[in-house]
Amino acid sequence: MSHNTFGHLFRVTTFGESHGPLIGGVVDGCPPGIALSLATIQGFMDRRRPGQSRHTTQRKEPDEVRLVSGVLETEAGLITTGTPITIIIDNVDQRSKDYSKIADRYRPGHADFTYDAKYGLRDYRGGGRSSARETAVRVAAGAIARAVIPGVMVRGALVEMGGDHAAERNWDEVANNDFFCPDAAAAHRWADKLDAARKHGSSLGAVVEIEARGAPAGWGAPLYAKLDQDIASALMSINAVKGVEIGAGFQSARLTGEENADEMRMGPDGEPTFLTNNAGGILGGISTGAPIVARFAVKPTSSILTPRRSVTRTGEEVDVSTTGRHDPCVGIRAVPVGEAMVACVLADHFLRDRAQIGSDR
Fold this sequence. Notes:
25% of the residues lie in helices and 24% in strands. The chain contains seven helices and 19 strands. The chain has a five-stranded antiparallel β-sheet, covered by helices on one side. Strands 10-9-11-17-12 form a five-stranded antiparallel β-sheet. Strands 4-7-6 form a three-stranded antiparallel β-sheet. Helix 1 packs across helix 3, helix 1 packs across helix 7 and helix 3 runs parallel beside helix 7. The two termini are 41 Å apart.
């Protein structure tokens, strides 16, 4: 299976399966001398970790990260050596028997059929390589990427669930509820809404918003190395994502030219400033210095108890009901994954910009 790597200078390769002994990855291209903290990396991992509330899968994985290459232990702590950094995360709570009933059945909405069509086999135990379990490695890589661009803050929030929008963007509220929601009232509604969906054997979709502040103007490149292009690609690679938008996104098609154009004035620091941010901090594929804003749509979890019509590998028509432990809304734990992917893209473009322009700009 090819295409397990993303990035250009800051490159991330992941490996492992949902029900294998471990998952892991290799971060290549990280500059030497970058200070890393295992506690900080673990903090990001814990935000994605399953089993922390009734609203996520009850699979109990500690997701403890081990860095087995590419770092040096010094008196001041861990620093990168410039060589490939290998990440190892053990799987400790697999229940492969939960999937024995669907070993020859294609789950509607899953990659079961397409993997079988392409490779002639599939790992039915939680989806194997197609499982969202792989995203834990991305979060660890994203933590390393953040250390490469310490002046950039990347944060995310769940801004819609099951068609119910968060009316506020109170970023201080994100850490106060189980949904990474910036609106306390919306989080309260979502708890009831998700409980009802789970009790009915169903699931809900969601929209995640990622914001990056502190990236200067000039990152990215025209045409085939656009910053927004790479962000969209990175977010689209996350499991269950079916749509990505930058800035005003699809809403920009409903605006007039006057409404959509982000007007400019000189700021107090003598630099141009934008009065609005419909562009999402990117113009012509290059960062403007304004906050970079992206949103992505996550479909409802496909593993549900409600029977759905499908077929077996041998062509028998059947109904499929998926048991086991699954997120009733996979969008919740996609928030730290989206943050990580944007951080990796920004680290990559920072290094590409430094290589092209130099470090003195």
